[in-house]
Write a structure and sequence with these properties.
heterodimer, A: 339 residues, mainly alpha, two-stranded antiparallel sheet, 12 helices, 2% strand, B: 311 residues, alpha/beta, eight-stranded mixed β-sheet, three-stranded antiparallel β-sheet, 11 strands, globular
Chain lengths: 339, 311
């Protein structure tokens, strides 16, 4: 807001008091020839930091394991007579009690967990965007109604409800989609409230009024004028929804209430627990799935911290200030040493 | 060309504190005409109803009573969705009125596309550049690609003016268009508005609290106090020969280097304000005090007289 550079106008002191010159007031700022404005989407990208890079590498690794892994490993259900063998050249991550290859199981289980994480992430984001943004934009009774609904869903205790619903649905019809829908229904409300607050703030800004005044249709006002300003919030909510879904599903499966037709990291832990992996000291059976969950969650969280910097530029300013202070200190030390 | 006839415009807002309900009359029986090539200035302090009138004229709010008739030269009324093609507004704060996410081109191109002024991408782009050139944003090609945060306050307000004129608006409501700008560039933006008004035969409603610019850039001034017009007339007459106490007070409130010492004492205005009566209005064209109940008829008579005098 302090960009007064191009608007400097010289007030010349004339004989009859200050005389305003009518010099060109809005000279364009110098911009290197041939460069164009950065496209709008660039503004939405977080700054590359070591944390963001670590997060992206972790996510890429886990996604690679889940997407490409299943094609490289053998049949995860194939039984052999080498039960509970520790990691070896033949079985990189050892075998389970019934001689199944843990690496093969891990690849398929990661794929299952990623699937459910993505499904819940998309569903929960869609639900929260609809109830949060649309309600706040409409205002009045619709807003009140949608608010009430999200408040009701907010106070429903998530995991117990999930356990009840999962227990209620018979095991044979309890597929991946059932679990995904149940998890999505219990996790959208908090994001909807955040989005509602953001939308209320954005929708009262002048540029929204101006676009309505120029005759934009409501869906365009929401989609083109309001939504882009909410994208960082949406992205962050999506990432958290994915983490929550993977953890929630792992918890359910560990309790034996997960999807019956899918293999996920949670079911792997469930079988490891049932196979007495811990008392038998078969760490290669339960550590890998636990580690994949932990690393993936960590990667997503690191990415989320970077997205938070877009939503709240103050965080970014704090970081750059810290970096500058460190650089100054280093430079001072260097001159000290040179002397 | 389009003109606007505002008759007995009234707006009540419902207030609720606890269980009690009351209404606040923000605008009370205001009548005026906006005709091509003429500027009407609405002057008054914060809360006097200036911006409410702007909201009513742009249909962001519905009037409680009274009418706003927008009609073409042949007296065809302008209604429905074409209303926005004729009446547009420039907002006060150029830092809030442009979407930080979109380029300058988007802001000017959307009204063009909505109101079907252009039909394909190439002609829209050409038209956008033309609009930007008209509001003195050079080089237009470079400016069109920028986003608001790369522009200064004055440049943003120029974009906002280009956006308002893009649908081919004939009636422009400028709600304190320069109050958020640096003093040094206010004149530039006001001169630009004046030039566009002459070129396009615009009818302009200039809302401000600055009497000096109101005098220079408008033909008629309406002084608004607590929702009512307390003094109206040709701009020079209102400023040089204020009759109503409130107008005098407004004129006093502006710092004047020749009058050192007479202002600046806090409490002055508060004391003087007690006696202000907003139930009568001084009309310079009629040269008489008019009670609020007869304001509409008087305004019409004054307009007719003014028109005759002008011819």
């Amino acid at each position: 807001m302090t960009n007064i550079g191009p608007d400097v106008q010289v007030a010349v002191e004339g004989p009859g008091g200050p005389v305003e010159t009518t010099a060109p007031t809005d000279a364009p700022e110098p911009r290197p020839a041939g460069t164009r404005a950065r496209p709008a989407w660039r503004m939405l990208l977080p700054t590359m930091t070591p944390w963001l890079a670590t997060g992206l590498v972790l996510i890429a690794g886990v996604v690679l394991l889940g997407v490409v892994g299943p094609y490289l490993v053998g049949d995860p259900d194939a039984i052999s007579d080498v039960g509970l063998a520790p990691p070896s050249a033949e079985h990189w991550l050892g075998t389970t009690q019934t001689g199944q290859d843990v690496l093969a199981q891990l690849a398929y289980a990661t794929r299952g967990s990623l699937q459910i994480g993505l499904m819940v992430g998309v569903l929960a984001t869609l639900l929260s965007a609809f109830f949060g943004i649309y309600g706040a934009y409409l205002g009045g009774a619709a807003d009140e109604g949608f608010s009430l609904l999200s408040n009701v869903f907010l106070v429903i205790p998530g995991l117990p409800l999930v356990i009840v619903i999962s227990g209620f649905v018979p095991r044979e019809s309890r597929g991946l989609w059932t679990i995904a829908v149940v998890l999505a229904l219990t996790s959208w409300a908090a994001s909807a409230r955040v989005l509602r607050a953001q939308t209320l703030s954005v929708r009262s800004r002048d540029y929204v009024a101006a676009s309505r005044l120029s005759g934009e249709k409501p869906w365009r006002v929401i989609g083109v004028e309001i939504l882009p300003n909410l994208l960082p919030v949406l992205a962050s909510q999506f990432v958290y929804a994915v983490i929550a879904a993977i953890l929630g599903e792992a918890g359910l499966s560990f309790l034996g209430l997960g999807a019956s037709n899918a293999s996920t990291l949670g079911t792997m832990l469930f079988y490891a627990q049932n196979g007495f992996a811990l008392p038998l000291g078969a760490w290669w059976w339960f550590v890998p799935p636990g580690l994949v969950i932990a690393l993936f969650g960590m990667g997503l969280s690191l990415v989320n911290f970077s997205i938070d910097e877009i939503i709240n530029p103050r965080l970014k300013n704090a970081r750059t200030a810290r970096r500058r202070a460190n650089a100054a200190r280093r430079a001072a030390r260097r001159t000290e040493a040179a002397r | 060309m389009t003109s606007v006839h505002v008759t007995n415009l009234t707006k009540d807002y419902g207030l609720r504190s606890g269980l009690r309900r009351s209404t606040l009359r923000a605008v009370d029986r205001v009548s005026f005409d906006l005709v091509p090539r003429r500027t009407v200035a609405l002057v008054g302090e914060s809360g006097s109803g200036k911006s409410t009138i702007a909201k009513l004229l742009t249909r962001m709010e519905k009037p409680t009573s009274g009418t706003i008739d927008v009609q073409l030269d042949d007296r065809t009324p302008v209604m429905g969705s074409v209303y926005q093609r004729h009446v547009q507004m420039v907002f006060q704060d150029p830092f809030a009125s442009l979407n930080p996410f979109h380029s300058v081109e988007h802001h000017v191109a959307r009204p063009l596309r909505i109101h079907r002024r252009t039909h394909d991408a190439a002609s829209t782009h050409a038209r956008v550049l033309e609009m930007l050139e008209r509001v003195n944003l050079h080089p237009a090609e470079d400016m069109a690609a920028r986003r608001p945060h790369e522009l200064s306050g004055g440049q943003r307000q120029r974009v906002a003016i280009a956006r308002a004129l893009a649908p081919g608006a004939q009636v422009l409501i400028a709600d304190e268009p320069v109050s958020m700008l640096d003093v040094s560039i206010r004149l530039g933006v006001l001169n630009l508005l004046g030039r566009l008004q002459r070129e396009d035969n615009l009818a302009v409603l200039y809302i401000t609290h600055d009497l000096a610019t109101a005098r220079h850039f408008s033909d008629e001034i309406l002084v608004l106090y607590r929702g009512r017009v307390v003094e109206r007339g040709p701009s020079d007459a209102v400023i040089l020969d204020p009759h109503h106490d409130y107008t005098r007070l407004l004129a006093m409130a502006a710092p004047d280097p020749d009058r050192v010492g007479s202002v600046g004492r806090e409490g002055d205005t508060a004391v003087a304000r007690d006696g202000i009566d907003n139930s009568v209005c001084y009309d310079h064209t009629l040269g008489a005090w008019v009670p609020i109940d007869e304001a509409e008829a008087a305004a019409r008579a004054a307009t007719a007289g003014g028109a005759r005098a002008g011819v």
